[in-house]
Amino acid sequence: MTALTEHKAEVRTLVRDARERGVRVGLVPTMGAMHAGHASLLRAARGENGFVVASLFVNPIQFGPHEDFAKYPRTLEQDLDLCRREGVDLVFAPTPAEMYPAGFATTIHVAGLGEKMCGGVRPGHFDGVCTVVAKLLEIVQPDVAYFGEKDAQQLAIVRRMVRDMDLEVEIRGCPLVREPDGLAMSSRNAYLSPDERRQALTLSSALAEARQAIEAGQRSAAAVATQVRRRLEASEGVRLEYAVAVDPDTLADLTEIKDTVLVAVAARVGKTRLIDNVLLRGLK
Asked: 194-215 vs 221-233: helix axis angle to the nearest 10?
């Protein structure tokens, strides 16, 4: 049975009870509006832990003043149904006041990694992400926390925060999940009109072409990024924000692609901001 609470104290009590039974604890932090990508994270957590916690919280401090906090999809009942189907033990769905009580004045900033790529166009976004993730890790104190590789920059930043702050938790990245037509799964896909959805497929097709070029031997990171950028800039309805080829762990710009590369893009299709990437490791 899946329990639901909005209270930090109850989470701590239930997690403590689980640990007294000698089981491992897994955490899947989400903002809700769950889809098959989230289900894959829950499934990974269920397979490796005796007690699984999923958080559902649309985090206000990671949204800018003109972003989509107010209209971000909130689908609690559907999310609870998915969590039940995937065997989640506890859903933590706090209110903003529960997470940020009156007088809250602390944020966590990971210097360097959060200023480029998405951080360059969403200033302060990753401070909000790191702050809420740190709070969730402290409240739940999981053995493992699960994040999707679709949010590759977020994953790298959270890993750096955990390392720098000596937090006793493993951060597990799980593969990006795509729709049958190739579109990267995202809660924000719900904003797209039929025409915009068709236009959005250019992101995944441009990245697929980049993958093919790299696997065929292209080792110039600049050439790969330029290929993706030109394809997206020429695409109807797509307003490119960035296209980069970087180290997936440090987010440092690459000159030569060796064994590992993250090719990442962000763009607006209509009013909807989308991100996507392709991650290649073990290249020869």
From this structure: 160
| Per-residue pLDDT tens over the stretch 89-131 | 999 999 999 999 999 999 999 999 999 999 999 999 999 999 9
State whether CATH 3.30.450.40 applies to domain 187-276: no
Beta-sheet strand order (sheet of 3-5)? 3-5, 90-92, 51-56, 25-30, 144-148, 170-174
Q: Please, what is the Cα angle at 121 between 257 and 263, to 5 degrees? A: 20
Which residues face 172 on adjacent strands?
146
Helix (H) / strand (E) element for 202: namely: helix 194-215
Distance between CA atoms of residues 259 and 282, nearest Å: 5
Instruction: Give ranges for CATH 3.30.1300.10 in the chain.
Output: 187-276
Q: What is the pLDDT of residues 134-164, one digit of tens each?
A: 999 999 999 999 999 999 999 999 999 999 9
Q: Where in the chain is the domain with CATH 3.40.50.620?
A: 3-174
3-state secondary structure of 266: strand
What gap in Å lies between CA 218 and CA 224, rounded to an integer?
8
The residue among 113, 161, 148 whose CA lies nearest residue 34 is: 148
Catalytic positions are: 38
The pTM for the full model equals 0.97
